[in-house]
Amino acid sequence: MKRRDLLLAIMAGLALAASPTGAQQPPKLARIGVLFDDAISSAPLRQGLRELGYVEGHNIIVEERLAAERHERWPELVAELLRLNVDLIVTRNTPATLAAKRATSTIPIVMAGAGDPLSTGAVSSLAQPGGNVTGVAFLGAGLAAKRMELLRDTLPRLASVVLHWNPANPAQVSYFHEAQAAARALGISLHAVEVRNGKDLETALASTTRAAPSALLITGDPVIQRYSARIIAFAAKQRLPAMYNSTENVRAGGLMSYGPSRAAIARRAAFYVDRILKGAHPGSLPVEQPTTFELVINLKTAKALGLAIPASVLLRADELIQ
Fold first, then answer.
1. Is residue 22 part of a domain?
2. Structurally, how many domains does the chain consist of?
3. Element (H, E) at 182
4. Which of 62, 67, 145, 70 is nearest to 110 (CA)?
5. DSSP 29
6. Residue 153 burial class via C-beta count within 10 angstroms: exposed 0-12, middle 13-18, buried 19 and up
7. How many CA atoms lie less than 13 Å away from 146 in the CB half-sphere?
8. 3-state SS assignment for residue 199
């Protein structure tokens, strides 16, 4: 190329770069719908997105909808997100996941800790979900039995257990049946108490008092978790050892918990969001299950209950809260 032609080409390039049509376009803003119970539980998801390079207002917009204790609002909240033309929806629990799936078969849905998606019909296969739902599942298979065994090992004279559960949550049904089978196998009497909403709570606690159990088994249902502080206070007043669903319950004063980290699951869901926004189809992304489970014991609560935790149980604990 002649020197004159080269200079003209350079000048043309500079002019193009300076023009509106040649300017670098800002990154596309992905709009993410988030259906969680509260802002605290959604914080790990936001952290995971930041770790993957997503900055709110720059390359992502998060449309958060929180149901708190009113889980009958999930369909309404899903409809709000659809009107906003979100690119993807992240759900925290089974009712929210199913509400989203019923509302759309095209917008990708990422589970961030929903219950067993197979038994509830959220997906047809863990390895090949096939539809528009994938993510991380908070599978309950085996957890009810393990928690019952830990209660038995902690309380050698364990004779009866009251289970607080929500039959309105599809993911709770398989957990309930598993708890029944575990109780029979261990020779423990199981009394199930239903907590469908806040109005049921006081009735459930009164029923628990009448049953006079040796211990409580509290599930991770969102409605029940909404009132976990009340249940923890009740257990302390009644001097009842209780096994909870999450570490957060034990930090708040509960006796013990066994299960995967809910925060870690929510943070991992960001990986699915990233893959899908970069072109992956949700139906081809296998559903993940937690592989690490933690036993956490609150020694201060044990002391208040006058309970001596056996050394065999203490040695198995991943964390002891003083």
1. no
2. 2
3. helix 170-186
4. 62
5. -
6. middle
7. 15
8. helix
Using an 8 Å Cβ cutoff, are 131 and 79 in contact?
no
Integer Cα distance of 246 and 64 in angstroms: 23
Same domain for 219 and 174? yes
DSSP state of 288: B
CB-based contact 107:88 (threshold 8 Å): yes
Query: Are the CB atoms for 262 and 237 separated by under 8 Å?
Result: no
Range of the domain at 36: 30-138+262-284
Answer for the pair 103, 123: CB distance below 8 angstroms, yes or no. Answer: no
Residue 14 lies in a domain: no
pTM for the structure as a whole: 0.80
Question: Does 303 reside within a domain?
Answer: yes
Do the beta carbons of residue 261 and residue 247 sit within 8 Å? yes
Alpha-carbon span 96 to 99, nearest angstrom: 5
CATH number at residue 241: 3.40.50.2300
Q: Three-state DSSP class for 290?
A: coil
Q: Return the residue matching tokens 């298979």.
A: 141
- Whether residue 266 lies inside any domain: the answer is yes
Tell me the pLDDT of the chain (322 aa) as tens digits: 444 443 333 333 433 344 343 444 445 899 999 998 777 778 999 999 999 999 999 999 999 998 866 778 899 999 999 999 999 999 988 889 999 999 999 999 999 988 888 888 999 999 999 999 999 997 655 789 999 999 999 998 999 999 999 998 888 888 899 999 999 999 999 999 999 988 899 999 999 999 999 999 999 888 898 899 999 999 999 999 999 988 989 999 999 999 988 888 999 999 999 999 999 999 999 999 888 889 999 999 999 999 999 999 999 999 999 9
Tell me, yes or no, whether 134 and 147 share the same domain.
no
Rounded-to-integer distance, Cα 253 and Cα 199, Å: 23
Residues 163 and 107 in one domain: no
